[in-house]
Amino acid sequence: xxxxxxxxxACNLPFIYNKKINTAGTSNADVxxxxxxxxxxxxxxxxxxxxxxxxxxxxxxxxVKFKIGRKEVFRSKIIHKNLNPVWEEKACILVEHxxxxxxxxxxxxxxxxxxDFMGSAFLDLTQLELNRPTDVTLxxxxxHYPDHDLGxxxxxxxxxxxxxxxRDAQSSIHSFLHWRICxxxxxxxxxxxxxxxxxxxxxxxxxxxxxxxxxxxxxxSITLIEGRDLKAMDSNGLxxxxVKFxxxxxxxxxxxxxxxxxxxxxxxFDFHLYEERGGIIDITAWDKDAGKRDDFIGRxxxxxxxxxxxQTHKLELQLEEGEGxxxxxxxxxxxxxxxxSDLSVSSLEDQKEREEILKRYxxxxxxHNLKDVGFLQVKVIRAEGLMVADVxxxxxxxCVVELNNDRLLTHTxxxxxxxxxxxxxxxxxxxxxxxxxxxxxxxxxxxSADFLGKVAIPLLSIQxxxxxxxxxxxxxxxxxxxxxxxxxxDVIFNAVKASLRTLIPKExxxxxxxxxxxxxxxLRNFIRMKRxxxxxxxxxxxxxxxxxxxxxxxSLAAFVLFLFVVWNFELYMxxxxxxxxxxxNYFLIISGKDNRQHDTVVEDMLEDEEEEDDKDDKDSxxxxxxxxxxxIQEVCISVQNILDEVASFxxxxxxxxxxxxxFLSWLAIIALCVFTVIxxxxxxxxxxxxxxxxxxxxKLRSPYAIDNNELLDFLSRVPSDxxxxxxxxxxxxxxxxxxxxxxxxxx
Length: 747
Hints:
The chain has helices spanning 4-10, 169-198, 351-360, 495-501, 519-547, 552-568, 573-590, 600-623, 630-657, 662-681, 684-701, 710-717, 721-727, 738-746, and strands spanning 39-49, 62-68, 71-75, 86-95, 102-108, 116-123, 134-139, 152-161, 213-214, 218-228, 241-247, 250-253, 264-273, 280-287, 295-303, 312-318, 325-334, 339-342, 374-384, 397-403, 406-409, 420-429, 435-442, 450-458, 466-473, 480-493. It is of the alpha+beta class. A six-stranded antiparallel beta sheet has the order 9-18-22-19-26-25, covered by helices on one side. A four-stranded antiparallel beta sheet has the order 4-1-8-7, with no helix packed on it. A four-stranded antiparallel beta sheet has the order 3-2-5-6. Helix 5 packs antiparallel against helix 8 (600-623). Keywords: Calcium, Membrane, Metal-binding, Repeat, Transmembrane, Transmembrane helix. It is found in: Membrane. Belongs to the MCTP family. It is a multi-pass membrane protein.
């Protein structure tokens, strides 16, 4: 057994092993000899200063690559959100020829995207003195923009020649074995660097030594109340302010408040705590400018370690590097954590633990922790027939499981198109209308992870305890891609809590997704909008045809119905008619006469979207026309989003009555029954009086309450036609079924 000292010394003995070893124990030409041209370069990567900002928040997540020739010999860790990073990392590099300079490249890490280039520099090894520590300052440059100042990198280097006398064969063999062990150890370290540096944006990795790895330890609930006396950035003496929050790699962007220096946001969101001591929330305020870069208003920070838990803190923060203040409410709470474990360790398979979970979400515990709606367990078993992503004809797949802002990932299975992960993920459900997203990526050492496929599964559509093969879809979730993934999912929830949560604002994702202009998307939203408007137009034409007596029997029936309804009309009849419409559609569905029509136009357009977007992307790369006219692009994106919102609103109303989500339709029936009874027995003036008193006294009773509309919150849970297509499960190839696979294996 080699001890650590010997192994370390073996690393300093680089040999070139080109010939066979003489086992007779004599020194001859077949024994590996030291290469007189070999050198050992010991580098300490100290720090960077005034590096280039590549993120929208005015910072970067820098890391450094060392290359000799075309070979990467070292990669540093990522320093998050820092333009003056301190690494203090050491690397031992073997150099064959001093004529090859050391190439240093700095990148800004972006998960899921291409890492941004931050500058590069060369270190001429021929200029170094042997056996003497040297401090080196390298100025970073961009070859395409040589005039840009990209900061500096500080190193300490020692260059040592590896020359020596001939050794006897036994000593040489022993040293060579040490060197080979060192080389293997270095390869393993590189693999470790590859995993850790590439995916440090995630929380803690799964540790095999632990039965269950808890990935976050609490929740930070933040309410952005208002801004006071912010700095005027526009020519009219006002600003269009919005605020960005960042805790580690969790981000949130507030809405934009136009033309004001004292904005009232009243927005609430949650961050996860991954560290016992809390962490620091970075806050920046910006002024939105259409057609050019947004103006920076100021920044501030919140040190969570200084705040007590289970208590709401009202903070009034002065903006640094600017003017004005921000008013926040911050609450730190402990919470049940999301977790990941091996397949052999399953919460629901342990009968005692399962009974505890069922008891926690039983109907008797309705008012106990209303935010804790349910429990989700996801078994990621394996995938088959994945897409080839590497030049070797294989892939290095890993799987990311997301539920709202909770994000966990499996280990990577290298060089495999049929990986087996056998991992169990558990989540706490805060909204039963959430969608579980499972994405498969290919881990790539030198670039961002490559997308292999994705599925989106609404929690309400899950059948408990059933192992299913889900066909992987493309990024837009509109068509199939290569491969299937086998999942087994269980959902346990409290129906009453889930119903109550439906009437409060939906949780927003803090991972920002930039809107982009797409000709195909704009056209699709216009057609959806047109379809909703045409429903109203056709209804108006129908009423007009009755008034014009185009069909005398129909007009006569409409006239009699009009007289009867107006003469006997009461307010409670409005929810009653909606209730009858829901009931009528329900009986049509259970009788097999489903009148729900799938929009083939939307589906066809969605299937073509990826192809069209690829063409648009290629055209934009060649011409760069759209990127040059920012103002027009902003207007087009706004129109595109407005069309989407209006069309989605109409489609959600339709899908409520079409029983697209039965849970929500039943909830609508209960609400309409309650409204009908209330309007029947209670005079309208009393109802309006109670409503007005509640509205006028709401701010007095709860000054920092967030305004919401229960009807809009309900409709936000109903999927639009586009989402229905995205969540639609594709039929897998029969050859991929578990039973078929088992028979084939037996055969």
